[in-house]
Amino acid sequence: MDSQLAFARPRVGLLGNPSDLYGGKVLAFTFDAFETVVQLTPQKRGVRFVCAKGGLEYSDWGALLEGLDARAGHGGHKLLAAAFDRFLAHTPSLRELAPDDPRCAFEVTFRTDIPRMAGLSGSSAIIIAALRLWCCWFQVELSPFELSELALAAETEVLGFVAGPQDRVVQAYGGLLAMDFTVPRSPDSYQRLDSVLLPEMLVIWDTQPGVSSARVHHDVYERWSAGDARVRSAMARFGEIYERGLEALRGGDRGGLADAIDENYDLRASLFPIEERDRRMIAIGRRAGAAVKSCGSGGAVLAMPRDPAGLAELEAAYRSEGLQTLRPRVGPLEATFQRV
Q1: Structural fold of domain 196-326
Q2: Among 141, 220, 224, 253, which one is most buried in terms of CB atoms within 10 A?
Q3: Active site includes 167?
Q4: Which residue among the candidates 20, 100, 113, 167 is catalytic per the annotation?
């Protein structure tokens, strides 16, 4: 049997984030400047989840079924193991495979160039790509909705992270998505939009890793769960910002979209801790006349000049401060598997 690869892309939260964890509405899109690639290589015996810092190893299929413990892992292989845990739960028939079935012996590795802890969904990209890979390997069909729900369960139920569905949904579907996270979620909750609606923007990031999104959300989520009126009111306002911004995006109203982007950040900063390096990236863009917000939980920002002629000047302002920039491109929704 051939080795197989599966892919996932980073995402940018355009509007409404981080309200996805709180039943809100979010606009987000994937872009193709970076990628995560998970590779499965057939083995004669045993199962291994491997990354640069070590791995989890099982002597045979039976040992895997009896001893799979994602929390025992570290870093990327912990994410791989959590993804496989939920894949097994979704596909219990795999437990009936004969030990000598060639599908029951493999090694899984991954590589990624998505900036680490930059709020671009690098962790969930590993899980999404891994689930895609096992769908191909075991010939199991998952809809994008099912894929996103399994990926979220891997992080929240298996690993105990505080996380919302946004990252997994947009990476599972790909492209520019309008998402309504009112419970209960269903495939009808998500709508893919034409990416031609997006104006030219910049993604700017710091090369030094930030803090995990779970840490960023922890205190606010506890307040939300306790019924904190200020948090509840803010999450309702995120929904209003989303609606205004979506209308502006569809109508080509650049000024209205810019206002929504700025308001989204200001509201977030009133609730969540913002690291100094993120405040600096916001300030640089605003001084240059751009609307700016965080892409995710910190480490990268999205900037849109209010005057489209100012994109190059905005880019230069960030680069003069030693920051990395790119012009995100949604690109085609290409195939997510490859045999090698």
Answers
A1: Alpha-Beta Plaits (3.30.70)
A2: 220
A3: yes
A4: 167
